[in-house]
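#struct-pred

JT: dropping the chains for the assembly here, can someone run the whole complex?
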Amino acid sequence: MGRAPCCDKANVKKGPWSPEEDAKLKEFIEKYGTGGNWIALPQKAGLKRCGKSCRLRWLNYLRPNIRHGEFSDAEDRVICTLYANIGSRWSIIAAQLPGRTDNDIKNYWNTKLKKKLMAMAVTSNQRKPPPFQSPLQAIPSQSPTFSSAPPLYREFSSYNYTPSKSLTGLEPLSITPNLWNTNNGNNSFVTSYSVLQSPEGLVSPMQYYPVKDNLLMFGGTEASCSSSDGSCSQISYGKEIKQEDMGALHSYYLSNGLVENQKFMLDYGSNNEVGDHPSAWTDQNPNGYFGNSQLQYDLEQVKQLISSTNGCNNSFFFSDENKTQERPMYYH
DNA sequence: AATACTGCCAACCGCGCCGTT
DNA sequence: GAACGGCGCGGTTGGCAGTAT
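RK: done, full complex below.
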């Protein structure tokens, strides 16, 4: 049975909002609130709009303290950090940036930030990146030297990995620090890692950071998402990773100058308590272990991550002279 | 000056989740 | 437990504006 439409499509106005409609909606909500019912709101407010449209207009444009326009470098860092950890969970990312909407961040990422990072990845590949400056670390050229090689690394190493299907030149990273190290001001650095390859040796159909010509690529064509709601994270196929293995991995990255110190966090991506739905993952992963790890990502870690970016003194991001200026947008 | 191309972003759409009945 | 209704999310689209040819 199909879902009933949320409103009478024939009798609702679509398209850009006029200043008059904005005023009506704003006035009504400021006076009466939403009443917890967006569907009924437009009629009460005298608007020929779908409730969802009203909600969107309010949340993305009319509600107080909305900020449009230029994103600061700090905001860039937060967005990149979180994107690297949790993927395109724009609402969660937006929650960490007061005044920003998920839509704004999504647009900003898709149109500017992603390109900016890719350009920087190219730049950082041309000259050997000093530690703690680039969020996109190059694959270390030498083999890891674990005292006891972690099974995870052996099994998932991308160095000897041969994809079982064509990847159009894009190769997955198996394990990589997925964000630059951030200094939280207390001289403790936070680095997280992602496992980016399935236990079956298949490339994750989810988002991962492919490598092409030794460059980490953001948003490559292989970064398609097969989850039903499109919410991707780095890890589609999980594998249990023991604490001691993580320790070894951390030591490895430490010895290769890829992480600074003290805190090591493994990002299991999705399958967490912030709105994902494990059943969808399970369907896609009949063989692999998934979730239920004590190392699952949770919101507290994100918060910690965010706070750790404050006072970050790395100079990876530069000013973007093309940043957009705030401008009201009305149509008629 | 006209046209084509590109970037940008507000708005739409479909779907999953969740609370209620 | 099933059906329903509403909310929220993320992906996509449409169209304006700016730039290039």
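JT: nice. Chain A has a mean pLDDT of 50. Chain A has two domains: 12-62, 74-309.
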